[in-house]
Design a protein that fits this description.
binds iron/sulfur cluster; about 325 residues; two-stranded antiparallel ribbon; Rossmann fold; 5-stranded parallel beta sheet; alpha/beta; 3 domains
C-alpha cells in the first residue's frame, strides 16, 4: 500500500479550464506524481464518489476544488471532500469568488429556468417541461441534482484553508503551493496563495502609466488598434490591473489585451468592482453629466465588466426579484 500523501482535484460549476491548466504543468506533473498519490482527479483519471467515501476522514492531504457551487450534488461532494481532506484549496476564480457562473445571480432561478427551458429562441418545449429531481422511468427512479437559488463561492459552502485565484490559475502557483504544503510549511489559514500586490506592479507597461491619468472616453479593444507598448488604461481601455492581484504572469497584457480582473483583489479589498469603479471615476475627464455618459458609454455591461469573476463574493452578491407592488 502506498504511503505517499494523497492529493485530490475536483470540479463543480466550471468550464474545466482550471484542471486543464494544472495538466499544463506538463512533465512537472510526473515529478509531482513521484511525491503524491491522486485520490480523485476527474480530468485525468477515473475515480468514483464511492472511492472517496471509502477513504478515512482526513486521509487526503490536500484537495483543490475548482468551480462555483450551484447544485445539491456539488454541495454534497464539497462536504465529503472537506471531511476527507486535511487541507482544502479553492482553486480558480469560480471557487474563490463565484467566477463567470455567479453572473447568473443577476437573475432569479425561476427567470433562468424559464429562459433556458421555455423562452430561448432555439427551444421547442410546448409542454413547458422542466428537469425534475426525481422521475419514474420504466419502473426505475432516475434522479438529478437540485439547482439551488443562487451560485456560491466554495467558502460560502465549506471551510476553506487557502485560495488560488485565476481564470485559469497559473499552474506554477499550485505547484508551488503543493510543494510548500508538502514541505510541512503552513501559510496562515485563509491565505490567498498568490502575490499580494496589484497587477500594475509587475506589468511590463508600468513605466508608460502616467502618474496623473485622465480618460475622456473609454474604448473597446476590438474596435480600436491597441498600442502594444503603452499602458492600456492610459490608452483608454478598461484595464482592471490597478484593482487586481498579481500572479498570472500578466498573461492578458502580454497578449495585448486589458486585464479583466480574474485574480480578484489584493488583501484588504472587500469588493473588487467597487474598488475599480472608484479608481476609474477619479480618472474620467468630464465636466458635466453628458461628458460622464460619453466617457462611460463604451462600458456596455458594467456589472459584467466590474464583477465578471467576483459577483458571489461582492457586496451585491445577487439580484433579488421584489414582488410587483399591488396598485391601490
Ligand atoms: S493599468 Fe493595465 S496596462 Fe496599465 S500598468 Fe496597470 S496592468 Fe499594466
Ligand atoms: S491579466 Fe488579468 S484577466 Fe488576464 S490572466 Fe492576469 S489577472 Fe487574469
Amino acid at each position: 500500500m502506498s504511503t505517499k500523501p494523497k492529493v485530490g482535484f475536483y470540479w463543480c460549476a466550471s468550464c474545466g479550464g482550471c484542471e486543464e491548466s494544472f495538466v499544463d504543468v506538463a512533465e512537472a506533473i510526473l515529478d509531482l506524481a513521484q511525491l503524491v498519490e491522486f485520490a480523485i482527479f476527474p480530468v485525468a483519471m477515473d475515480f468514483k464518489r464511492q472511492d472517496v467515501e471509502a477513504l478515512d476522514d482526513g486521509e487526503i492531504f490536500a484537495t483543490m476544488i475548482n468551480g462555483a457551487i450551484r447544485t445539491s450534488e456539488q454541495e454534497e461532494m464539497c462536504h465529503l471532500l472537506r471531511r476527507k481532506s486535511q487541507v482544502i484549496i479553492a482553486y480558480g476564480s469560480c471557487a474563490y469568488s463565484g467566477g463567470i457562473p455567479a453572473l447568473a445571480n443577476l437573475v432569479s432561478k425561476e427567470a433562468l429556468m424559464k429562459y433556458v427551458y421555455e423562452d430561448a429562441p432555439t427551444v421547442v418545449n410546448p409542454d413547458h417541461a422542466r428537469p425534475q429531481t426525481e422521475t419514474l422511468d420504466q419502473g426505475r427512479m432516475a434522479t438529478l441534482p437540485e439547482i439551488r437559488e443562487m451560485v456560491r463561492s466554495l467558502d460560502q459552502v465549506i471551510e476553506v484553508d487557502y485560495s488560488i485565484p485565476g481564470c485559469a490559475p497559473n499552474p506554477k502557483l499550485v505547484l508551488a503551493a503543493l510543494q510548500t504544503l508538502l514541505s510541512g510549511e503552513r501559510p496562515p489559514k485563509g491565505a490567498v496563495l498568490a502575490p499580494n500586490v496589484a497587477l500594475c506592479a509587475n506589468c511590463p507597461r508600468i513605466d508608460t502609466k502616467p502618474r496623473e491619468l485622465s480618460v475622456k472616453a473609454f474604448k473597446r479593444p476590438h474596435l480600436h488598434e491597441v498600442d502594444p507598448d503603452t499602458c492600456l488604461l492610459a490608452q483608454g481601455f478598461l484595464c482592471m490591473g490597478p484593482a487586481t492581484r498579481s500572479g498570472c504572469g500578466e498573461a492578458c497584457i502580454r497578449g495585448n489585451m486589458p486585464c479583466t480582473g480574474c485574480y480578484g483583489p489584493v488583501d484588504g479589498i472587500l469588493d473588487q468592482g467597487a474598488k475599480i469603479l472608484t479608481s476609474l471615476a477619479s480618472l474620467v475627464e468630464a465636466h458635466d453629466e453628458a461628458g460622464i455618459d460619453h466617457a462611460m458609454e463604451a462600458i456596455v455591461d458594467p456589472v459584467g465588466s466590474f464583477y465578471r469573476y467576483g459577483m458571489a463574493k461582492s457586496l451585491l452578491r445577487r439580484k433579488i426579484d421584489l414582488p410587483t407592488p399591488v396598485a391601490r
